[in-house]
Amino acid sequence: MRIKRESSCLNKSYSNPTFSRRPYRSRLCCSVRLNQFIDMFSPLRKDLSGELLQMLQRQYCLWCSIFCGIATLIALRVAFAGSLELLINSIDFTMNEPIPVPYTCSGDNKSPALAWSGVPVTTKTLALIVRDPDAPMGSYEHWVLYNLPANVSGLPAAIPPTPTIAQGALQGVNGSGASGYQGPCPPPGAAHHYHFKLYALDVKLALPPGATADEVEHAMSGHVIASAELIGTFAR
Fold it and tell me: Where are the beta strands (DSSP E) in the chain?
């Protein structure tokens, strides 16, 4: 009789729908609520991922634009610099015009002021040689100057005849064997032409002060990037 009662109790317990279905319903309810929670934040997640992707795309486009802009500026700078022509001039005389007396042996024998522009960006140093090709004994050198820094854009008048000058260049010897500038001094007669030739070089010349024009020309052979010339005349 006891065994039967226990059996019926067990049967009653397991046959109770409330008892048997409650764990399943609880799990089902939790699963539904979790899915609802995920679905509630799903649009937000999509929006955030979309905004993040757009932000990364904007950053990428920005850096690409900056890089392209810098590359364009560099290319334009190189192209523009390469298209410039090296020019030399003087405030004291113009091309193929007479050199004023103060800059000749008939005056103060001082060097004229010079200025130049269009120096190539690859220039390391500048050199200047002044010649008179009309001299009775052949070409005569009136001024030899070299290793002038590329960032120098001119020389003032009356450069002293010292082995080095304030602008950083070295001075060679002129036709008389002296250092520095020697003004035009032709014999009486027809006007002579004086060529102020400026050279842009891609090296610094390994020469001491006092070099001759021939030594400077030999050292800079194969290193001339550009050159410019200003011609003045003088007659006595």
Answer: 87-89, 97-98, 114-117, 125-132, 140-149, 154-155, 170-171, 192-201, 224-234
Domain of residue 110, residue span: 87-234
Return the DSSP state at 229: E
My answer on whether 74 and 101 are in the same domain is no
Sheet holding 87-89, edge to edge: 87-89, 114-117, 154-155
Are 72 and 98 in a shared domain?
no
The domain total for the chain is 2
State pLDDT tens for residues 36-56: 655 665 665 555 566 666 676
Strand order in the sheet with 97-98: 97-98, 224-234, 192-201, 125-132, 140-149, 170-171
